[in-house]
Amino acid sequence: xxxxxxxxxxxxxxxxxxxxxxxxxxxxxxxxxxxxxxxxxxxxxxxxxxxxxxxxxxxxxxxxxxxxxxxxxxxxxxxxxxxxxxxxxxxxxxxxxxxxxxxxxxxxxxxxxxxxxxxxxxxxxxxxxxxxxxxxxxxxxxxxxxxxxxxxxxxxxxxxxxxxxxxxxxxxxxxxxxxxxxxxxxxxxxxxxxxxxxxxxxxxxxxxxxxxxxxxxxxxxxxxxxxxxxxxxxxxxxxxxxxxxxxxxxxxxxxxxxxxxxxxxxxxxxxxxxxxxxxxxxxxxxxxxxxxxxxxxxxxxxxxxxxxxxxxxxxxxxxxxxxxxxxxxxxxxxxxxxxxxxxxxxxxxx
Length: 350
Prior knowledge:
single chain, mainly alpha, Dna Ligase, domain 1, 4 domains, two-stranded antiparallel sheet, two-stranded antiparallel ribbon, 51% helix, 8% strand
């Protein structure tokens, strides 16, 4: 079949266009992916003095806020703003594309409020601290932390965020919302709770929620760091033996108040959180445990014969194997407490 010169040239042009179009389209799709949001929750990022666009991009990529640090650098240079990225604290949201992240960094740095959330606080205590810092309305924060859609979105299998509001020192912008506060605390929890921690769950026979629940009890029962793995082991042993945990901390949570000494009536409080009345773990965490208590729960001492412990009142405990030993230990502690009280009264009288 005879092909005219014009038809031949049209075919050649089509081949050339297709040859050029494929890589161009491929590059466009790749660039679109690099610029797309990572869906990482908002967080504060510190840009240090003297950081280049490349260094900033590398940090943002390491934090999961952008897909590719090199693409960030190239985008900033192409726009002619690489030299305008200033040091300071910024609130950056992985739900925004890289181009808008650059826009955020061109805004004035945030004035941040520092707040420290100690280990073991409940949601209510956390809300009160945030309220005192002027960062949140305590009632709204409590409401947010039991918002079902948010809880599910954050990957927490529980009715509230109790236990997952990670204790830490945070820097928050003054205009932060209650939801953003909760999101960052939970994001911090899942950053601390690593893949190796998830792997340990099956070794101790607990689900994530059970581990956080037990970790919250260990947090409030253990004072001396060296005792945490032993106390965790005792609770795990009691669980395996179908014994009640008999944790005073769970009774205080049920009562809603901290008491130096619980009475026999206190131990009878009707609540699913009262582990003197109910076997097994309570329905959920009784506070927000720190990294050390979570680690102790996942890495308890290898084995123990102890089943009981009683506080000496100085942050350490007497550990016992049998109930009779435990009774003697409690009697000794009571006697020592009375002796200290008498000595203090005598000193005051003089």
